[in-house]
Every structure is written in structure tokens, then in C-alpha cells.
């Protein structure tokens, strides 16, 4: 494992260190099936994520929907309990902290959600909502009346600070009476009224109009400077991340594939997935059409993860050692058979796709020795249509017992590699 | 000037919640006044208000309480002096019908209020906590609910005795499961709202979340169950009185009992002693049903819209 801290920068101290964080959600399956099946099916929402946040920086966590970035954010502020790994906040591992400890932690770390409207209680006045954290974390010594006065003053000054003016009038309004931008300002005010050190912003501006979005982002930058906060900024919007983040981490299927200073990553992405993501950012110049590298196919499901590198079935720069396995052949076969132009008589020779099975590195189907030669020949022909790296990864094709099988060679071990100032998880950069 | 503002602030602070709540109920009623549910609710509301008026001002409308037998000649048909005639023991039917509104509304208020006071918190708690506590409570409430309502009320009334308050309690027991169920299901969906998770992220305790974030958003369904169950309450109370398990004989007006007393005269063509109390029961029940059905049609889509 490579040391993840940034070397050379001795002044900053780390505020948050996430080590090999795992969050798995159980898949709901019927009781009977659960008994028969034995092994538990889980969604690997986050599967081994590590990063370090320095005090005062803004780190972006970027990825497609469903890649687990929100789950990382929720696990960091302990709205959910991680399945494994460590979340070290100011030298304390809070991954397994319980009720009271977590509640006390909320003073130090706060989270802002995507939907400002849904984050506010419709039956609570804006002023009360912003001031409620003060009441929640009130220590008993002060009298209620004087605390109420103080809290009100505190709320009003916070409202001025986030631009919720005229604050006296807005104090008594209900969320339904406010605009989207105002609601997001209120949510921000509520999150920072306790002066937290770490703020997790989960798609904080995604639901706002472009014009308001820029204003809110600037407000967040302002507040960060004034209150010396650290941001973990979760977004799927690379343009926003570029604007606001010092460092970014690119996530794919529950893992960080590339992490480093955002300038470097935007200027020269290394991981094929990052390249693909960056190539689809729209450029505000119609004459300057970039070539878009779109990954093939769909994001694989997070219950049965691909072997080796998770991106390998879709990767444009894939190698033979990236983790080809039986399932990948079945996908290719399925694609081939469902295209009437290419399939021809193959369905009669190879049989329907349902007859095929895949287990680990091997895919195959039951057959008699008579057909074996014919099937083997067709398999080789179909393999030739697939990616070259896949063909190179094939170990054996042939009859084994009663089955015709295709066996792939196993993948090389994937490790995080330091490239310049960033860390990439890709075999292309491994020696 | 400054004092005025100060005073106003105190007033809004004290009355803010209820006033806003009532306003939030009336706003959809005003907006939907031209649709069928809106019209139904308004008719129901006016009828209910009419009955409440009669109930409150019964002593003014008919100053004499008709409890004594043989105050007037028996079984007089409706005439100028006795608008609805007199009954089998010489009481003025009109007076008893008017006072009966007071009795029925009191029972309804006691029954519905007690059911609300008990059912709402339990439903809230059960829905929020979940797990085996929730399952146990649902089981208990369902078994009460499965029991025939009138039978259960009659059983309880027989045990705890007659009287307005006791009948109120007997009826309460039937309607607690109704309040419980609706509150619970509303809590279940409110619990999943983002603002509840946001409150957890702020560090709020479960109690705080339940009382300050969930209760106020669940309470919106209460008027619907109230007006739906209220109609039923009237019928059940009348039913109990009809069976002789209801109120004492000296109550100045009791529609169910009067109906029960009147049935023996029906055969001899004396219709006025049974028609008028019966009509009142029907009218009040219809009014409350209109209000309940209308409100539930109006408020349910609102709830759906809010959630989406």
C-alpha cells in the first residue's frame, strides 16, 4: 500500500483519513432462497476507498450515479455504519462509534444534501430550523430565556452571512414560502451555525439553476475561508468540481480509480475512466468539437463485481491482464447471438444463451463429444469479434469432461500507483 | 409602536402553530371549493356547524329540559304548540330533539378526542420505532379493530355503566385503532423524508425528531379520520342507547333512546316520535360523512403531491 499523504506539504495537518472504507448493503432476497443459497448477496456500494483530507482543502468526490460517492459521504459523517475500514477524524477512529459519540461529533462535521427543499422540515420556520442545531447541542447551564435571545441573534447574523435577507422577515417564513436558492442558503446556514470543521456537501448545487449555482458556490468558498472549514465535495458534475476543488478523486463502482490535484487531473487524466469522463464535459465553443470517448455498455451491477479492474469490461484501453472472466465471454456471446446479421446459424450450433454458464474464469456449456469440435471452432470465431485484449487473455478452449469450456488466464494484481502527484489504480501505469 | 410589534410577536408565537395549522387546512378547502369534494366538504362543514350551534344554544332555544314524564298530554300529533308533537310519556319531541344534539355532540367530542389523545401518540411511536414493538402494537390494535364495533362498545358500556362520559370511553376504544393505523402509516412515510435524516445529521435525538420533525407533518391527516369516525361515533352512540346500554333516563335528549321508546307506537300510526330523532341522526351522520369524504379526497392528493 502506498502512503497516501501528500509529501512535501508539511504545514497542513490532516483532518480526515479514510482507510479501506467498505459499505455493503444486503440484498433483500426471499427467506426460502436465502436458506438455499447460503452465501449472502450484498451490494458493494463502497469497496475499499482510501483518501486523506488536509485541513482547509476542498476535495471533490466525482463519479457517475451509483458509483458510491454519496455512500462515502454518508459513512464519513456516520449517517450509516461502514461495513469495514477506518474513518479517522482528528486522530479518532469513528467508524464504529455509537449514538452519543456520534451526536457529539455532529458539532464537528455536518452534511448538506442535494435537495434543499426536502432537507427542511415544512412545519418549521426558517429561523427555528437554522437555530435548531444550537438547541440540540445546548449544554444546560444557561437559562432558556437568555439562550433563546442569544440563539436568535446568532441565527440572524448567520442569515445575514449567507445572504438570507431581510433576515427579520425571513425568520418567520416557512420553507414553502422560499425560493430554491434561499432554501439552499438556509440549509447551509443550518449546517455551519455550529461552526463545524468538516462539511460534506453532497451534490449541494445540483438542483439549483445555473445562475444561482455559481452564487451558492461562491458563498461556500467565502464561508470556507471565513470559518476555516474543510469540504468534501461530492458531485457528478465535473465542471463544478473543476471550479471549486483543490483535489479530486474519481470513483467508479465503489472504488477510487484516480486521485490527485485537480489541475493535474484535468490537464492530463491518466486512468482510462477519467479520460472518458473528462471527454464528455461540454466545451462552450461549437467549433471546438472534442472527440468523445464513451465507455461501452452499462455499469456492471455492484452485487457481482467484475474480476480484476472493475472498469475492464468497458475500458477502451483494456489489457489482457485486466481481469477477463467467464461472464465477459457470455456477454460477448449474447451480443453476437442477438444480432441476426452475425448470428447466422450459430444459435443452432451453440445453443441458446440460457444453456451457457459462467463461473469465475471459466464459461462453458454441456455437450456431447460429437459437437465439441464444431462448437470450439465457432467460439474461436466469435472471440475474434471481441476486443483483442480479451482474445489474448483466453487460456484454453476445448472439451473438459462433458462441457465445452473457455478458460481465461487470471488477472494481474491491481495496485495503486503513484504517477506524479496523483495515485492511479490501473495496470497501464504499473511496472 | 415597538410595544405593538413585541405584542404581535408574542401573539404569533403562542398562536402561530394552531393558526397556521387551521389556515393550512382551510386553504385547500377554499381552493377546491368548486370541485365535488370541495362542495361536499363545505356542505358537511355547514351542517356540522349548524348542529354545533344547536347543541351550544339548546338552553336558549328550548329553555325547559324535557326530562319529566307527563309534562304535557301524551302522544299529541305535531301542532302549533308542540311542533313535533309529544311522546308516549308526554314530553315535547322538539325539545328533546334539540337537546339530543347537545348530547350526541358531547359524546362525539369525548370519544373522538380521547381516541385522538391515545391513538395518535401510540401510532407515532409505533411507526417511528418500528421493529417488534411496532409489530406487537399493530397486532393488538388489529385484534381490537377486528372486533365488531357496536358489540365491543356494548360490552364496555355494560361493564363501566351508563352516562355520557362512560359512553364516550366505550366508543373511544373502538376508534383508537383507527387513529393508530392512520397515524402509524403516515409516520412510516414521513420517517423516510430527507429532513428527518437531516435532523439526524444535526445530532437530534429520537424524541426531538419524533416531536419536532414528524408529529407536525403527520397531524394533517387527523381531521380526515376525525370527521370520518365522528359519523360512526354518532351511530354507535345512538345504537347503544337504542339497546338500552346508553345514557341515564334523566338526560334531556337522547336520539337513540327516543327511537327505541318510539318503536312500540309505530304500529298504531304514531310517526312523529320516531321520525324526528331518526332524521336528526341521519342528518348529522350525513353531514359528517360529507365532510370526512370530502376532506380525505382533498387532503390525500395534497399528501401525495407533497411526497413526490
Task: Itemize the secondary structure elements and their pairings.
The complex is a heterodimer of chains A (431) and B (308).
Chain A lengths: L13 E13 L4 H7 L4 E13 L3 E5 L6 H8 L7 E6 L2 E2 L5 H7 L3 E4 L3 H4 L6 H11 L7 H18 L5 H5 L8 H13 L5 E5 L7 H18 L2 E6 L2 H7 L2 E6 L2 E7 H6 L4 H8 L46 H12 L2 H4 L2 H5 L6 E3 L2 E5 L2 H17 L2 H6 E7 L2 E6 L8 E3 L2 E3 L7
Helix pairs in contact in A: 5-6, 5-8, 8-9
Chain B lengths: L1 H30 L4 H21 L1 H4 L31 H37 L1 H16 L2 H12 L3 H28 L2 H9 L3 H13 L3 H21 L12 H12 L5 H36 L1
Helix pairs in contact in B: 2-4, 2-12, 4-5, 4-7, 4-10, 4-12, 5-7, 6-7, 7-9, 7-10, 8-9, 10-11, 10-12, 11-12
Would you give an account of this structure?
The complex is a heterodimer of chains A (431) and B (308). Chain A has 431 residues and is α+β, with helices and mostly antiparallel strands. Chain A has 3 domains: 1-108 and 196-309, 3-Layer(aba) Sandwich (Rossmann fold); 125-188, no CATH class; 326-408, no CATH class. In chain A, 36% of the residues lie in helices and 22% in strands. In chain A, 41% of the residues are buried. With 308 residues, chain B is mainly alpha-helical. Helix content of chain B is 78%, strand content 0%. Chain B has one domain (51-307): MetI-like (MetI-like fold). Chain B is built from 12 helices and no strands. Classes of the chains: A alpha+beta (431), B mainly alpha (308). The A-B interface holds A 77, 79, 102-107, 110-111, 113, 115, 118-124, 132-133, 136-137, 172, 174, 187, 190 and B 12, 20, 193-195, 197-205, 208, 212-213, 216-217, 306.
Number of helices of chain A: 17
**CATH superfamily (homologous) name of the largest domain in chain A:** P-loop containing nucleotide triphosphate hydrolases
- First-last Cα distance of chain A: 15 Å
Question: Which architecture of the largest domain in chain A does the CATH hierarchy give at level 2?
Answer: 3-Layer(aba) Sandwich
The structural domain count of chain B equals 1
Estimated structural class of chain A: alpha+beta
CATH architecture of chain B: Orthogonal Bundle
Largest interface: A-B, 27 and 20 residues
Mean pLDDT of chain B: 84
Question: Per CATH, what is the topology of chain B?
Answer: MetI-like fold
CA radius of gyration of chain B: 23 Å
Instruction: Tell me the span between the first and last alpha carbons of chain B.
Output: 44 Å
Query: What is the CATH fold-level name of the largest domain in chain A?
Result: Rossmann fold
Total beta strand runs of chain A: 16
Total strand count of chain B, please? 0
User: What kind of assembly state do the chains in view correspond to?
Assistant: heterodimer
Amino acid at each position: 500500500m502506498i502512503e497516501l499523504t501528500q509529501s512535501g506539504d508539511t504545514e497542513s495537518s490532516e483532518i480526515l483519513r479514510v482507510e479501506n472504507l467498505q459499505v455493503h448493503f444486503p440484498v433483500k432476497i426471499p427467506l426460502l432462497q436465502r436458506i438455499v443459497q447460503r452465501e449472502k448477496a450484498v451490494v458493494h456500494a463502497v469497496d475499499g476507498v482510501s483518501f486523506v483530507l488536509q485541513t482547509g482543502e476542498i476535495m471533490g468526490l466525482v463519479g457517475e450515479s451509483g458509483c458510491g460517492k454519496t455512500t462515502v459521504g454518508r459513512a464519513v459523517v456516520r449517517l450509516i455504519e461502514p461495513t469495514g475500514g477506518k474513518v479517522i477524524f482528528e486522530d479518532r477512529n469513528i467508524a464504529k462509534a455509537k449514538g452519543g459519540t456520534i451526536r457529539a461529533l455532529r458539532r464537528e462535521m455536518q452534511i448538506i444534501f442535494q435537495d434543499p427543499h426536502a432537507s427542511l422540515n415544512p412545519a418549521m420556520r426558517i429561523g427555528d430550523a437554522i437555530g435548531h442545531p444550537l438547541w440540540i447541542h445546548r449544554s444546560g447551564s444557561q437559562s432558556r430565556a437568555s439562550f433563546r435571545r442569544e440563539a436568535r441573534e446568532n441565527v440572524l447574523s448567520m442569515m445575514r452571512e449567507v445572504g438570507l435577507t431581510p433576515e427579520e422577515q425571513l425568520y418567520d417564513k416557512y420553507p414553502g414560502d422560499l425560493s430554491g436558492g434561499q432554501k439552499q442558503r438556509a440549509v447551509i446556514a443550518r449546517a455551519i451555525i455550529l461552526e463545524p470543521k468538516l462539511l460534506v456537501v453532497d451534490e449541494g448545487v445540483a438542483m439549483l439553476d445555473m445562475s444561482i449555482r455559481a452564487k451558492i458556490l461562491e458563498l461556500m468558498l467565502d464561508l470556507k475561508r471565513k470559518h476555516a472549514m474543510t469540504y468534501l465535495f461530492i458531485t457528478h458534475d465535473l465542471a463544478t468540481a473543476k471550479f471549486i476543488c483543490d483535489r479530486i478523486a474519481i470513483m467508479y463502482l465503489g472504488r477510487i480509480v484516480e486521485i490527485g490535484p485537480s489541475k493535474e487531473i484535468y490537464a492530463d487524466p491518466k486512468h482510462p475512466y477519467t479520460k472518458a469522463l473528462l471527454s464528455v464535459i461540454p466545451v462552450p465553443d461549437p467549433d471546438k468539437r472534442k472527440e468523445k470517448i464513451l465507455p461501452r455498455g452499462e455499469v456492471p451491477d455492484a452485487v457481482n463485481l467484475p474480476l480484476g479492474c472493475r472498469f475492464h469490461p468497458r475500458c477502451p484501453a483494456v489489457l489482457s491482464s485486466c481481469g477477463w472472466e467467464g461472464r465477459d465471454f457470455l456477454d460477448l456471446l449474447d451480443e453476437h447471438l442477438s444480432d441476426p446479421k452475425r448470428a447466422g446459424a450459430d444459435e443452432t450450433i451453440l445453443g441458446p444463451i440460457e444453456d451457457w454458464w459462467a463461473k469465475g474464469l471459466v464459461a462453458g456449456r454441456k455437450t456431447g463429444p460429437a459437437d465439441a469440435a464444431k462448437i470450439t471452432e465457432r467460439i474461436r470465431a466469435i472471440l475474434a469479434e471481441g476486443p483483442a485484449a480479451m482474445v489474448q487473455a483466453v487460456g484454453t478452449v476445448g472439451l473438459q469432461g462433458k462441457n465445452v469450456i473457455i478458460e481465461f488466464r487470471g488477472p494481474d494484481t491491481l495496485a495503486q500507483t503513484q504517477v506524479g502527484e496523483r495515485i492511479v489504480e490501473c495496470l497501464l501505469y504499473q511496472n | 409602536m415597538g410595544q405593538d410589534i413585541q405584542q404581535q410577536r408574542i401573539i404569533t408565537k403562542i398562536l402561530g402553530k394552531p393558526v397556521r395549522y387551521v389556515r393550512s387546512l382551510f386553504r385547500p378547502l377554499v381552493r377546491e371549493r368548486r370541485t365535488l369534494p370541495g362542495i361536499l366538504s363545505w356542505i358537511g362543514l355547514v351542517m356540522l356547524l349548524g348542529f354545533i350551534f344547536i347543541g351550544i344554544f339548546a338552553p336558549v332555544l328550548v329553555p325547559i329540559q324535557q326530562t319529566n314524564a307527563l309534562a304535557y298530554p301524551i302522544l299529541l300529533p305535531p301542532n302549533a304548540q308542540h311542533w313535533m308533537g309529544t311522546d308516549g310519556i308526554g314530553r315535547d319531541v322538539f325539545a328533546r330533539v334539540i337537546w339530543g344534539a347537545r348530547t350526541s355532540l358531547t359524546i362525539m367530542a369525548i370519544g373522538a378526542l380521547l381516541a385522538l389523545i391515545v391513538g395518535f401518540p401510540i401510532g407515532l411511536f409505533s411507526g417511528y420505532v418500528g421493529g417488534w414493538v411496532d409489530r406487537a402494537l399493530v397486532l393488538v390494535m388489529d385484534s381490537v379493530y377486528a372486533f365488531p364495533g357496536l358489540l365491543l362498545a356494548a360490552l364496555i358500556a355494560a361493564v363501566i355503566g351508563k352516562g355520557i362520559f362512560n359512553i364516550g370511553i366505550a366508543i373511544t376504544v373502538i376508534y383508537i385503532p383507527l387513529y393508530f393505523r392512520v397515524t402509524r402509516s403516515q409516520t412510516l412515510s414521513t420517517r423516510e423524508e430527507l429532513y428527518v435524516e437531516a435532523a439526524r445529521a444535526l445530532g437530534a435525538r429520537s424524541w426531538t425528531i419524533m416531536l419536532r420533525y414528524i408529529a407536525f407533518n403527520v397531524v394533517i391527516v387527523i381531521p380526515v379520520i376525525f370527521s370520518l369516525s365522528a359519523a360512526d361515533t354518532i351511530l354507535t352512540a345512538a345504537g347503544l342507547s337504542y339497546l338500552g346500554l346508553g345514557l341515564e333516563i334523566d338526560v334531556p335528549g337522547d336520539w337513540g333512546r327516543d327511537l327505541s321508546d318510539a318503536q312500540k307506537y309505530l304500529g298504531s300510526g304514531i310517526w312523529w316520535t320516531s321520525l324526528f330523532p331518526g332524521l336528526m341522526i341521519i342528518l348529522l351522520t350525513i353531514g359528517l360523512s360529507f365532510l370526512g369524504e370530502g376532506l380525505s379526497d382533498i387532503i390525500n392528493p395534497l399528501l401525495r403531491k407533497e411526497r413526490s
